[in-house]
Amino acid sequence: MPYPLLETIADPADLRQMPREHLPALAEELRAFLLDSVARTGGHLSSNLGTIELTIALHYVFNTPEDRLVWDVGHQTYAHKVLTGRREGMTRLRMKDGVSGFPRRDESPYDTFGVGHSSTSISAALGMAVAARDKGEQRHAVAIIGDGAMSAGQAFEALNNAGVIDANLLVILNDNDMSISQPVGALNKYLARLLSGRTFNAARKAGEKVLSMAPSLLEIAKRAEEHVKGMFVPGTLFEEFGFNYIGPIDGHDLDSLIPTLQNMRELTGPRFLHVVTRKGQGYKLAEVDPVLYHGVSKFDAANGIQSGKGSGKLSFTQVFGNWLCDMATTDSRLVGITPAMCEGSGMTSFATQFPARYHDVGIAEQHALTFAAGLACEGMKPVVAIYSTFLQRAYDQLIHDIALQNLDVTFAIDRGGLVGADGATHQGAFDLSYLTCIPNLVVMTPADEAECRQMLSTAYQHPGPAAVRYPRGSGTGVSPAPTLDVIEIGKGEIARRGHGVAILAFGTLLASALEAGEALDATVANMRFVKPLDVDLIRTLANTHDKLVTLEENAVIGGAGSEVARTLESLGIAKPLLRLGLPDSFIEHGEQAQMLTELGLNAPALIERIKKFHSINT
């Protein structure tokens, strides 16, 4: 469909030349464009539909990119990308060599800070504001953060610091979940304009100057102001942090957004604007079910997402979800914990069946782990469901609060290895490296769905910290048994017997290793455990084969292959060893299968790489 207004905008400078009365029509065009675009490519939908007007208002009021806009997480930045010269590139959104699903500094000067994980925007924008002040530059720094991201400790650390720094920082809370819709109306618009206007703030500063001569009167006046504002707005908390709080205002009303932002642009010091938006705004299906339409695959926008039959294979996430409910039925001590990833981690059924034992702690990974540690101290059996890259954010708690005390916590680590379209910020490329070096921690890598369920039971029954690391997406089609059987810790198995070369596979790349093994008549071992390694199996394979190859969907540096090399060294065995895995680089977005091929980790590439290794070392 044609987009006559949108097509006139090559960058925000064009937007700022547009008559203000045309902006609501532009917003409708932009919303229609994004719905059509994301339906064709897949991506994050409901969050982006909810920030159309806010994005337009920000680029209309501020002189971007000279003024810095820092978006939190980045799920809501598609409109920003379209307005900053990437409209045509949206046809290849999240595809190889196409537009990233998140802001990236190397993609556009308008992407002032690279994001993907939550709650970093205020810290980054504060740093930019302080840099501008110290360099004598007259530019604005704006952080746009969601209400979910505000639950993370880093956001409050940044607020606490910003309140005592003399820097011009504007924080915009994009609130699309809190129950505050009632105050958003004519009265609230009036209050927002009044409180953000020059007259009110000039009067406040003049009053403070006069009253500073009598500190007791100044304190009384400040308390009176807080009381009056508190009757209308929920801003006391942010005022206590040292921010000038304005709002909440309707984030879909450009006639409210633009004058309020214009007023706040003229103010100085830490400012906080509370904006209320609705996920999925303008697309009824997404408004009704914003979770379903949060991250979507390609779909028919006219008919919405249809629940098809799918591949018929269980995903590893579903295997975990089923196991969690089954184990909880047998053990009342089990407690499930997730840092704001109930659906993504497969915990929906558990939350419904065992609501008293289900804890979504919000985007607070550090708290999630120490909370689990406290539960374990009292004899409970916490299971923490967390993505590989999100666990990175709680590394100190993993070491200090859990492993150091050898506490009984089970980790279900989803999205291990390559994740595809979400790209570099979400690739689970480092977990085997950063987990294996921690004392007391058992680390497992299932090769298929059946083994995943067994390993979850094994981790749960182990009396110390244990992690099961599995990939995103559908499994291999190996149906798990309904039992809760365990496997012996630290024991791998021979999956195929051959000669000459032995391939030691960790995780789901076992299938490709077996295919390569057939072509090369090589032995293939399913190692299962990265820690503790099966030392006896490694010794046997080294003594009966000419060469060894390790295979993992993890960074080669410090990964499972490195542990095998260290083991061979400790055994005094000198044997040619080829370590295959992810390279020493951040891996960009694209399809998982395509990435495995390009990285030389699919079966045909493995065959050629092992042949070359074999011929060189023969």
Helix content, binned percent: 40-55%
User: What CATH first level of the largest domain would be assigned?
Assistant: Alpha Beta
* CATH architecture call of the largest domain: 3-Layer(aba) Sandwich
Fraction of residues in β-strands: 5-15%
CATH topology of the largest domain: Rossmann fold
Counting DSSP E segments of at least 2 residues, the number of strands comes to 19
Q: What is the count of DSSP helices, taking H or I runs of 4+ residues?
A: 25
| Biggest sheet overview | 7 strands, mixed
Question: What distance lies between the first and last C-alpha atoms, to the nearest angstrom?
Answer: 63 Å
Number of domains: 3
CATH homologous superfamily annotation of the largest domain: Thiamin diphosphate (ThDP)-binding fold, Pyr/PP domains
Rg, Cα atoms, Å: 27 Å
Global mean pLDDT: 90
The outline comes out as globular
Neighbour order of strands in the largest sheet: 9-8-10-11-13-12-17
Q: Which structural class fits the helix and strand makeup?
A: alpha/beta
Low-confidence stretches: 178-185, 227-233
Explain this structure.
The protein is an alpha/beta fold. It has three domains: 6-196 and 245-296, Rossmann fold; 316-469, 3-Layer(aba) Sandwich (Rossmann fold); 493-616, Rossmann fold, CATH 3.40.50.920. The protein is 42% helix and 15% strand. It is built from 25 helices and 19 strands. The strands form four sheets. Strands 9-8-10-11-13-12-17 form a seven-stranded mixed sheet, with helices on both faces. The protein has a five-stranded parallel sheet with strand order 2-3-4-6-5, with helices on both faces. The chain has a five-stranded mixed sheet with strand order 14-16-15-18-19, sandwiched between helices. The chain is globular and about 80 Å long.
